[in-house]
Fold:
Amino acid sequence: MSLMTRKHPVDNVVGVRDRAVKGAQRAVPAAKKAVPLAKNASAAVARSAEDAAAWAKPRVDDVAAWAKPRMDDAAAWAKPRVDDARAWAAPRLERSGVAVQETLAPAISEAIVAAAHKLDVKPARKRRRWAAVLAVSMLLAAAGSAAAAVALRRRPPVVGYEPADQGSADVSTTAADQHVTADGSQPDAEVNGQSPEV
Structure:
């Protein structure tokens, strides 16, 4: 056989198969014998468990019968002592609760609130654009009304005309008769049938 090909001869494979078959044939009778032994063992274990239970039951009953009155006596003895301990502890516990509520709770509450304020993100100030627009428009309106008032004061007085049916001669004499001073006011008491404004 060549070392490079690693081919096994067919005779070795047949020999291995034969040995496996012989081993299996020997194992079958042993397995057949083991099944009844296993059944017998399980029955023996069940019988032993029943015997142990039968032996233990009267003893457990005896212990329970012995312990029950003693437990009742212990409970009767302990009940007033437990009640006394509860009566002693209840007011002290209540006073402790009130003390915690009045002293520790406010301090803890303040610490928690302070921590919450430190953790809170401060909101950015909102820009009030509408307020700026309103202020600018009010300033412009005030400046416009001031300019209009100055313009009206500097304007020369308007000469009034009477209706056309009175005649053109009266209109020219009325305009000529009126005297205007240097500041634009009229000295006459009545202008076009109206009294001057004060």
Q: What stands out?
A: Confidence is low (pLDDT under 50) at residues 169-177.
